[in-house]
Each structure stands twice: as C-alpha cells, then as structure tokens.
Predict the 3D structure of the following.
Amino acid sequence: MAVRVVTDQAAIEVPVVASRRGVLGTVGRGLARNRKAVAGLALFGFFVLVALLAPLIAPYNPSALQFGQMLQPSAKHLLGTTGTGQDIFSQLLFGTRESLLIAVGAGLGATLVSVIIGVSAAYLGGIWDHALNLFTDVFLVLPTLPLMIIIGTYLNNRGLLVLIGVIVITGWSYGARQLRSQALSLRNRDFLEAARARGEQSLYIIVFEVLPNMTSLIVAIFFGAALYAVLAAAGLQFIGLGDPNSLSWGTMLYWAQANGALLAGSPVWVLAPGFCIAALGAAFALINYAFDEISNPALRPVRRRGK
Amino acid sequence: MRYLIRRLEFFVITLWAALTMNFILPRVMPGNPAQAMLVRFHGRVSPETVKAIEVAFGLHSNEPIWQQYLEYLRNTFTGNFGTSVTFFPVPVGDVIKQGLPWTLALVGMATIIAFILGTLLGMLSAWRRGGFFDAVLPPVFIVISAFPYFWLGLLVLLAFSLTLNWFPLGFAYDLTSSINLSWDFIGQVIWHGTLPALTIVITSIGGWILTMRNTMITTLAEDYVKMARAKGLSPLRIMFMYAGRNAILPNLVGFAMSLGFVISGAILVEIVFNYPGLGFTLLQAVHSEDYALMQTLFLLLTVAVLLAVLAADLLTAVLDPRTREQG
C-alpha cells in the first residue's frame, strides 16, 4: 500500500550488458557499492536467518498457553505475553517464517506476471500492446484493498495460498508498466536487430536477449512487489482476513487489536510485530530504491570532491 | 484531442471492468453467500428486495446470463445497490451516503496536503543536490513508506492520545454532540481528524517526495534549464517555472494512478481510529459478510479514483501543450 517510486523508465538509456562480468556480476558490483542496498540486504538477510533459526532461538513454544496473561516485558518474557498467555518474543520469531514466505512467494508471483504481461506488450506491439497496456492500467487504478477484501471474503478460505494469490492478482500491474516502458526502449536497439537478422525466434530473443538486459529492473520490481506483499498481507491479516490460527506478524497484530492491547496497557504486543513488518518492508524498499539508482545513474548520491 | 479521447476510453473501460467484476465474482466463487444472505433476510423483506438480491447475485434465476447482466447494470446505474445486511433494512446507498463525506474530507484533505508538501520538498531536494534535504529526506522516507499505514496509526494513537492525552481516541466528533454547523462542532471535527490525517500524510508523502525528486533530477539536466541559467534568470524562477513545471507532469499522473493505493491505506487508518467513513463501513461489511455493501463500496472507490485520474488528465492537457497538439 505504500506508494512505490517510479522513475520514467522510457527516459533512461539502459546500458547494454556487454562486460565479461556478465549480468549478475554487473548487478552484484552495483549492489556492493550502494549503501542503501547493503543496508537493505543486511536487514533482509537477518530476517531470513531468524526464520531459519527460530526453533533454536525461541525460548518457548509460540503456541503454548501456559503463562500468565498480558504480562509486562521481563527477563523471563522479553516482550511480555499475549492475552491468552503466549510468549510474544517466541511468537515474533516463529511469525517471521510465514511473513517472509508470503513476501517472497507473492513477490515472485507478481514479478512473474508482470514480466510476462509487460514484456509481451512491448514486444508484440500494435493492438496487443494497446490491449495489454489498458489491462495493466485498469488493474493499476482499481483500489486494491477493497478488491482483495471482496475476493478474500467470497473465497471464505483463509489459507496461505489464497492470501498469496489475492496479493499477486492485485500487485502485478505496477511492475508490468515499468517493464513495458523499458522493453519498448530496448526494442529498436542494434543487438536485437542483429538477433532478428540472425533469424532467431521471438521467444529466444525475449528470454536470452531482452530479459538479461532488464535484470536490474526485474530485481527492483521483485523487491517492490515483496514490499507490497508485506504491507498487503499485514493489512489483510490485521482486519481478520488471514487465518487467525496461523502464526505471522499480521495475525499477531489482529489478536492484539482484538484484545484491545493498547487500551489494556500492553503496547509491546502491538509495537513488536508492527516494528518487524516495518523493518522487513524497509529492507525491501531500500533494495528497491537502490536498484532504481543502479539502473539510472543520474539518481546516484552526489559525492563532494575531496572527501 | 486524441489524448483526451484515449483517456476517456480508459475511464469507460475501467469502469466497465469494475462493474463486470462485481457481476462475475459472486457467480464464479465457490459457496453461496447470497443464499446465506437470503436466509438471514427471511420474512423480513418485501418480495421486491428478495428479487433484487437474486438479480444481484445470480440466484436460482432462469433468465439467461446476459439478461441478468443487463438488469444488474440497470440497477447499478439507477442507484439501486440493494439492501445492507449490516444496517438492515437501510438500503446500501443510504449507508454509503453517511460515510462518504467523512472519507472525502479526511482522505481528500490529507492526500492533497501530502501531494503539495511532498512535491515541494522533492523539488527542493533535487534543486539542492547533495544538500541537507537531499541527504536526509530520501532514506528517511524510503523507510517510512514501508510502514503499514494502520501500524503508524496505532503508534500515533499510542503517543498522542493514550500517553500525552492531546487528542481524542478516535471517531470524527464528540459522541455527545450531534452533527451541526456551529464553530464548536467544526472545531471538534478538526480536533478528531488531526491524528488520522497526520498518519495518512506521513505515510504517503514519501512517495511524492521521491518521485518528484527523481523526475526533477532528470529535468534539471535538460538544455532549456541550462539556457535559463545562462540567461541569468532568478533561481526561483528556474526552479518553479522551468524545471518544476516540467517535472510535475509525470508526478501528477502518478499521483492519480496511485490514489488506489492511498485509498487502500486510508481505509485501514479509518479502521484504527474508528473514523465513521467508508473504510470503517467496509470493515463492518466484512465482519457481517455484507456482500452488497462491500461490492458497492468497491465500485464507489473505483469511481472516485477514476474521477481523480480524469481530473489529472485534464490538468495535464492544460499544462502540457504537447498533449493538445497531437492529432
């Protein structure tokens, strides 16, 4: 639900990958030199680690109800306990797993759809371009939350896959639009002419000539979509459209709100999961923005001379 | 002209897509929500209302599908959205009429403030490349834009209402007073609206700042800006009339296009603050599985976003001579 940053992709001259380092090498070097990217990747890596090691770090079983209710933070319960006596810190650690899964899963799904639609629009051109572009714009302006809510309520199935599916349906359009503009600007480049002159098939050209040159944008779109997925999932779970028995940050917020945690004097119950959502979102946003800077050198921070 | 015709085409097609989605969804989704709805209505409504619900949700109807579709379209365009389950027996249209002004005022004001402030800050940060604003604003707002709207709402609530006691806990006015046009009441509305509006401004402003900054950086490198500098025009004039004016065009369209996102966030903010607008109504509709109300809200929000897009397009046509000259 955050407003994502768009730079007008058509206006950017995309450097054609020709170096011996290859696509990944170029992107990797760009990342390592960008402070925002390093910060974002470190944060993202941290959460991945927490998700993997949750059973080792967590002091208690996250679902166990054996403790006092709404205890304040203490040495025994770092973040206190919930209204039903579960350890909040353990819940937070285990919740990382589902939250990450939704972010990465829905992010990948949305990116795949936007690559397919955006690139085919640009490459097929003509009436196809017009139709696919219109289709993208329609999905771009439809208010996503009400649409997600309607689909979610109708399905009446609060499973993880439904949640991811709903996020993919509402989250692909943004990337498709950016990819289309960039693919359009690539369309008449010499190396594509050369491929066509060699008699390569369209599919080959798209997969092996066009896509590698859009790697940094595609990666940026993945992180943008993952950011959207984190926030959308949190919003949906918060209003009770997730599986209330699942363990994720959004669900924790739902229970905290349902138990009136703020008014009952347990602000930590609300603060902790929200902080994690914001931190994971910030990681994705930073990486997303860094890629925008990598693909558009004009945006890179100005370094004063003599420093 | 060609530009405007293309935009009108977009308007009509999106509207049609939203309408059709509302028609198709209840018919292809598993389960039978409408049946459940009718059971709850049983014996409480007139035969006409039952008929209207059957039409809206395609229930045991022998009519061919296109006839159902036409009837559904006619009902929608004549403002017959059905009856709300949540606020039975109030028609959906009336329920929405109560929430609409609150949402329009809150979200509208907050969005306009965020857009104007964000655009100005973005301009400034691009103009002073490497200066204080440019070094501090982008990273800060990248991080803030990743905050869930509703969580920031909860934070603001915790800080300013619960801890400091400066602002009320929610709702749009004191529950003891009734709606009137006195200064006292307007004061209450502003007092109650400050925190939700603040939340929306803080979370959405970052997008405008960053987009404006990035476009402005591109325009500042243009030849006409160099020319303007060479002519010795005042920096303010170059900033606003040369670079800013041209950079704002894509931002304006982006503004309209992302209103859908903003509205989605604002819905959650209303829920946190118990603000009696459409977002709060939507939550109630979700809790009581009030499909008619939910779908009408979706339609209405879509129309609102589309109108904003259209307005931005008209404004672009006025500001950008290129759109007028084509064709």
Notes: Chain B touches chain A through 75 residues (CB under 8 Å).
